[in-house]
Write a structure and sequence with these properties.
With 160 residues, the chain is mostly helical. It contains 5 helices and 2 strands. The chain has a two-stranded antiparallel sheet with strand order 1-2. The chain is globular, with a radius of gyration of 16 Å. The two termini are 24 Å apart. The model has no long low-confidence stretch (mean pLDDT 95).
Length: 160
Amino acid sequence: MNQEPYFQLVRFKRWADSALYEVVGAHFDRLPGEDAAIMLRILDHIHVVDKIFQHHLQGLPHDFKASRSETLPEFSALAQSVRETDGWYASYPATLSSEDFQQPLDFTFVNGTPARMRRGEILLHVCLHGTYHRGNAGLLLHKNGIAPNDDRVTDFLEAA
């Protein structure tokens, strides 16, 4: 089994998240109140889902009751936690054997629905989920006259 796509995916996620947080951090004060709150909700949702699935991959319980925080975090605290979590995801595939990517994990979604996904599927889900919502954040930036970061895979490959 070729593990390289997993390594590329998590490195791309870390790169794209970092660039988004850089742009948002530099222009957060330009977002009107409601849009600033929406931006924080988008970023928090991505991060909470990342944390939930990190716990599943580690076989650890979590305290999340929803796919967002009960209290909206401050931008700087969220940015720091995202850097740490993205760092964990970027290093995680190196801890796995080829067979580990195919290992099924049983867990329960925050809505109580039981689920089973392979480790590789979880990594794919986390990376694609983040991509989808970074697009939401980019639209919100664009709506407010702020140029979003380039976050295409081709941009990542060119920068590497």
